[in-house]
Structures are given as structure tokens and as C-alpha cells.
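SEQUENCE WITH STRUCTURE:
===
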Amino acid sequence: MNPCDVAHATFHVAKTGPKFKFLIVVDTKRNLGLLINSKPFTPPAAHVRVTPTELPFLDHDSFVDTAQLVCIHDLDEQIATGKGKIVGHVDEPLRQRIYTAITTLGLLPTVQQRLIADAFGLALPA
């Protein structure tokens, strides 16, 4: 598992319990990443639309949530045991679109923006 890989793994959602979700891996040591959702949540501007053309494992347009980094505590274990899997990788143009949304909206603390910039191989704006 590497930064910019997309994992499909169980994520514990507060309202509905465990669900399989797609996660763009940002930090492999702390199992942090950006969720890909079927629909945008509040605030809608914090979501970047992605298509099956960009991420072929998707079967419909989806949305990367750029308002928060989430943790799947046992992501590495899920991948190792086959309960979860790596399904793809985010290419540079899509990483740039996602990162532009993150820095434009400024919803994440600077330390998290830097973490994402490093993972995505991009420079943090001055």
C-alpha cells in the first residue's frame, strides 16, 4: 500500500455502522486518507467529482471528500488479510484537482494540507 493508492475497505460510519468505502491513501503509517462517496455531503463545494473514466473501479460518478482526512485504523490489516484490497491509483492530474480544492477551500489545517501535498508529490502554495 502506497500514497495515492485507492483502497476498498470497511469503514465504520457513525450513522450506519460498517460499510465498504473507497479511500485515497495519504498516510500509510497512520492509515489516513480521503473518502470517496457516492454523493457529496455538506459542504458540497468540498467534494471533487470523479468519474469511472478517471477511476475505472467506480461504476458511477462519485465524490472525493476534501473536507476531512479519515482513519481506517486496521486498513493495513484488512489489505494483508484480503478483507480489503487496493483497487487503483490516483494519477497526477486528478491529484492536482483534489489538492487544488483542498487548498482553495482551506477547510483542513495546514499540517494536514502539507501531509497531502507530500503524499501527492505536490508543492504546498506559499
